[in-house]
Write a structure and sequence with these properties.
homodimer, alpha/beta, Arc Repressor Mutant, subunit A, Rossmann fold, 3-stranded antiparallel β-sheet, 10 helices, 39% helix, 24% strand, DNA-binding
Chain lengths: 259, 259
DNA sequence: GACGATACGAGCAAACTCGTGCAAAGCCAA
DNA sequence: TTGGCTTTGCACGAGTTTGCTCGTATCGTC
């Protein structure tokens, strides 16, 4: 059997029961326990479940690699490559943040990975992203400001005018912006109507804009224009991103970081 | 059996009964008492329950870091009597809420109990209380609005001007107000400077005020005046509350509910 | 305050689970 | 087919969990 399909079956089995043992899974899928252990290790690293001694449990809904954020938006399960790309982008982005700075972390699945990198750092994080809250809730060193809003459970975020209003009170050093697509003409776009105004307010509240976009976001999808890559101070991306689009940013004086 | 799953079963068993003995749990889960003791120790340390001699009781809901909130204010450990009083107050308060209403839930340890009672109900909840968020995060039927603010980890709440600003956008049917004390002269007081303005804004945003105060809050402590019991539409309390203070509310046309 | 009963935690041996290294099997392209 | 690569199952040393025993601490009762 193909690895990916087996892993999907494991996730489904866990979803239905909430937990499963290595032995049980090995019996159900007719493979050895070693194989199950290897699969569980991968799935754990991708945040799709939480490994326990002797088995695994479903990850607390939507904490890291939300099947919603990724599954809904892109029509498939997060796969190793994508999560890995995001993790590299997140690490590179976090490295740009200096101690004492105020950072706005956007909605999305990449920003919680940035948040994780910021653990233990002396920074202030502003967000509407509950996954970010979850990452930093117990970290005393990070000052965390949660913008208000209506809870959108599927995306683990807060939206609405309250978030925009709250941003009016914020002055940040940098915003880590995520999006659903970057067009060949340099337009940074999103496909969520409720998020777009918040993203625009985040941009307005921040001195510097850092765009987080793995190669998969070129060109991506989405009709709502947030800004242009020419407006951003830095694009953090991966090797596969098209040079032509990145050049638009470079020519406008923006930095391009390939993680 | 998987450790984690067993611990979840223990917590569930406790939630349904409120308390359980080591012997009973060992029999139910078909493991030795030693194992149960070890599990209880872990769960106690995580704040998910409170160990007692011979068994355990549910920790005051809101879990984990919650003991700071009350531990700091009222002494080290969860107090069975107090939790029980709060639970009764919370149930009586929740019973007052009609379907479709908008409810503001204050900071504190009683309001998460109200939130739990509201699970599955068709209501809108407005709060700065992360313990309330935690209770309702996965309940699709409740519409949840989180006010913004700076995370105050010890008290699992959001404070600051952003919360007050956010409340300006809110029009609620009722606020479930908590406090640290109700003076014999009827003054409802609190001892947290950062919370008082938010509580006042909550009152302003709501048509009706319901004060949640177990008998322990009479007279309680605190120097910051929030309002008078004469201003509230209902006081939900317990048997031991002084009649004289409650009469102030009654004479002003307020309802008094003894849970 | 003393006593018997019960509960507690530490220590220990046995059972179980883990991850890794390795060889065989499976797959793909040339 | 061959050759290179990935995946799988097994063996094994290391680490974790479990149930038992035993000395100590706590509870309820006298």
């Amino acid at each position: 059997m193909i690895t990916r399909e087996r892993q999907n079956r494991i996730v489904r089995a866990l979803r239905s029961d909430g937990a499963a043992s290595v032995r049980q899974l090995a019996a159900d899928l007719a493979v050895s326990e070693s194989t199950i252990r290897r699969d569980l290790e991968v799935l754990d690293r991708n945040g799709e479940l939480t490994r326990t001694y002797g088995g695994a449990v479903v990850h607390r809904p939507g904490t890291t690699v939300e099947e919603h954020g990724l599954g809904v938006a892109e029509g498939r399960f997060a796969d190793d490559v994508d999560v890995d790309l995001k993790r590299r982008v997140a690490a590179a982005a976090a490295a740009r943040i200096a101690d004492g700075q105020v950072v706005v972390l956007d909605i999305g699945t990449t920003t919680p990975l940035v948040a994780r990198e910021l653990r233990g750092r002396d920074v202030t994080v502003v967000t509407t992203n509950l996954a970010v809250l979850h990452e930093l809730e117990n970290d005393e060193s990070v000052r965390l400001i949660l913008l208000g809003g209506v809870l959108r459970r599927n995306y683990r975020s807060l939206v609405g005018s309250m978030a925009v209003q709250g941003l009016a009170e914020v002055s940040a050093d940098v915003v880590m912006l995520s999006c659903t697509g970057v067009r060949p003409n340099g337009h940074v776009v999103d496909n969520m109507a409720v998020e777009a105004p918040i993203k625009r307010a985040m941009i307005a509240a921040s001195q510097q804009i850092v765009l987080l976009a793995t190669e998969r976001k070129f060109p991506g999808t989405g009709a709502l224009r947030l800004c242009s890559v020419a407006d951003v101070d830095a694009v953090v991306t991966t090797e596969g991103a098209p040079a032509a689009t990145l050049d638009i940013a470079r020519q406008a004086g923006g930095e391009v970081v390939v993680a």
